[in-house]
Write a structure and sequence with these properties.
The chain is an alpha/beta fold. It is built from 14 helices and 21 strands.
Amino acid sequence: MTSWSEVEYTAVRELRGPLAVVEGVSGVGWDEFVRITLGSGERRYGLVLEVDRELAVVQVLEDTSGMDPARMRVSFAGEPLHVPVGTGWLGRTCNGRGEPVDGGPPVFGRASAAVGGTPINPVRREPPSDPVLTGVSVIDALTTLVRGQKLPVFSVAGLPHLELAIQIAAQATVGGEAFSVVFAGMGLTHPDASFVRDALEERAAAGELVLLLNTADDPVIERILTPRIALTVAEHLAFTGGHHVLVVMTDMTAYAEALREVSAARGEVPARRAYPGYLYSDLASLYERCGRIRGRSGSVTVLPVLTMPAGDITHPVPDLTGYITEGQIVLSRQSHALGVYPPVDALSSLSRLMRKGAGPGRTRPDHLDVAAQTLAALSRARQVRELSDLVGQAALSPTDRRYLDFDEAFLHRFVDQPRDEARPLDRTLDAAWQVLLTLPRSELVLLPTALLDAHGARDAPAGGERKGAGE
């Protein structure tokens, strides 16, 4: 329970967008939680954004609409914003401030924690290891998500990134151990928010999901708070409760735009694309809250989803995200246009920690070899397709035409899957083998001979005739 100061300040100099400037304050610190009482008796809350001598700049969580500076009383808590933590969050649906919107009582917990979080001591940080299986073939096989990793999804407007985020949140597992998902939606439309609730209803009913939904018409400050509350809840579930927790945050571009709006209201000097100069450190303060701690069984894995304006991967949000995180999953307009779901561009995607979570003892002994051979063949197939566009298929060699068959099979027999299908890893890797075997054995140079023999790999037929991709 927050212990409020008995001192209330009434000298509010001005309201500026989502900000209130309070005069004559004493002993107030940065990031303190604030209670604002209006003349009508309504209460709103905020956080101290800046303190300069006797001036405090307060960001109001519910926005400043309808507030009269002459009829306000402001009280400071003397501490940052805290939220209750514990398993009471599981199965609940709340707004971006953590207030229930599912008709249930407020969320209670035996303990509370500051939403700003506490950095993990680098000495106690364990390297990420072991997989989080998403049930999505192209991710599990080629860009394996590892417990404790931060792996973003890069998309553009019009692609099904929200559907992919929901599918992963609905069906991800860690092989029978205690597992929870925290889903933080930011800047969602009301139809999208309803879609998220309906699609994740089964996982919520099972008590494995925490849902925080900030809609586009909610106050901009709430959007900044949403991922912090999500990560605070996840940290307690993981490092105190022993759960492996996957935090899905979408859309981080909406979060960054909210940060830009508050920065402009404060009158700060803008940096690239008018974003604040501290965008990098702000994003890092979120992404770096994932990981594992030595001596504790849980983990926090972060999957941020962001849209690249105009598909520009050099835009500040994806650019800075790429510096902080350990790879990326990139969605492709071309694959989407072909009707492939999920439209992941496998060659542009990467999980830098994949070798920590895949292979013998973790997934399957042939996993890493199959992934390396698939990506190498896909790279060659892309070169062949570019050559084909120049000279025509008739001028290609029989082997090159087999690579075109492989490319088609890869998209339609391996990547493409129903939006509600959770593919087991064995089935995923078996499908990868079927696709690879559309190529002659002599082209599968990254696979050990024993594996090729076990899967019946054969060389090109005599005479070089072409074998259809579907055979």
